Amino acid sequence: MSLVGWTLPLSPTGRSQLVPPPPWRYSGEIIGVDFRADPERVAAYLPDGFEPAGDGSASFVFADWCSAADVDPSVRDDPARGQYKEAYLVLHGRFAGRRAGRVPFIWVDSDLSLVRGLIQGFPKKLGDIAMTRPVELGVGGYRKEPGARFSGHVSSAGRRLVTAAVDLEATRSDWYPPGIATPLIHTRLWPALEGDEPAVAELTRARIEGFEMGEVLVGPASLEFGASEFDEIADLAPAEVGDGYVCSVAFGVVGGEIVEAGR
């Protein structure tokens, strides 16, 4: 009997695999903040061929996701599998003449999401993420409406890395927040067991379908980066903080494509 699985662990049935193959579906709640970092430091974190915006444009995003896999109903049916939080930084620029983003740092609280991200080229690490959860009734939390305050923070290895808050003031129509609506360029990197050259080193982007976004509420924001000997995100600390936003978003990842070999 052969062992099967799209990812490890392999088993006779494949049921133990950590990540099933795409298509993958995502529906989530977003808290994001746009900001500017030191342009030279932003440029230093971009791969060859990726042109920085030049003004240090960046976004930090907190996301509370429900996810699904077309071939495995348990990802959506069991919240222990498919639901998770993550927090990530997006640097803005252009690749091959088109608007693009790059995620140099991202933290997640789920092993399925971590490995699913590494497969795509997200540099995911485990972290502890807290976010304001929107409510529909009562005053025990905030509703998504002007006057509400939404906040989030992420820690890893016991160090607080990012703290953000948004004071919602208004609804903004016909606008796609750059932190969640910018096509991303990833690095898929898998080391070889022998030798210095990696077994896989390529720039990729996901193939997205069914992108949807709900009402976007915006307002002034605060954003602070902490220091850690294990993470270098402080290199990209905000020099100027712009507006923040709260919204719902959904999309599907149906695969990916290599856009350039190398890092």
What does this structure look like?
Helices cover 11% and strands 50% of the residues. The radius of gyration is 19 Å and the shape is globular. The N and C termini lie far apart (39 Å). Strands 1, 2, 3, 4, 5, 6, 7, 8, 9, 10, 11, 12, 13 and 14 form a 14-stranded mixed sheet that branches. The protein is mainly beta.
Helix and strand arrangement:
Layout: E1 24-36, H1 39-44, E2 50-52, E3 57-69, H2 74-77, H3 79-82, E4 83-95, E5 98-108, H4 111-120, E6 124-126, E7 128-131, E8 149-156, E9 159-167, E10 170-172, H5 178-181, E11 186-190, E12 200-213, E13 216-225, E14 240-261
Parallel strand pairs: 5-6
Antiparallel strand pairs: 1-3, 1-14, 2-4, 3-4, 4-5, 7-8, 8-9, 9-13, 10-13, 11-12, 12-14, 13-14
CATH architecture label: Beta Barrel
Within CATH, the superfamily carries the name Acetoacetate decarboxylase-like
In DSSP terms (H or I, runs of 4 or more residues), the helix count works out at 5
* CATH topology name: Acetoacetate decarboxylase-like
- How confident is the prediction overall: mean pLDDT? 96
Report on the biggest sheet.
14 strands, mixed
Distance between the termini: 39 Å
Give the class-level CATH name.
Mainly Beta
Number of domains: 1
Shape, per Cα inertia axes: globular
State the order of secondary-structure elements, H for helix, E for strand.
Answer: EHEEHHEEHEEEEEHEEEE
**Secondary structure category:** mainly beta
User: What is the strand tally?
Assistant: 14
Percent of residues in beta strands: over 45%
Q: What's the Cα radius of gyration?
A: 19 Å
Helix content: 10-25%
Q: What ranges have pLDDT less than 50 throughout 5 or more consecutive residues? A: none
